[in-house]
Design a protein that fits this description.
Length: about 40
């Protein structure tokens, strides 16, 4: 199973993708999306 988590915001949005394999939870990717304040 894969899960996408999103933490919404106006100027910054965080995200993470995690994956469960048997009894293990693994971080696939995470990051931050920044927008230009002028947009």
């Amino acid at each position: 199973m894969k899960v996408l988590g999103i933490d919404p915001g106006f100027r910054k949005t965080g995200y993470a993708v995690i994956k469960k394999i048997e009894n293990k939870i693994l971080v696939v990717e995470y990051g931050l999306i920044k927008t230009n304040i002028k947009e």
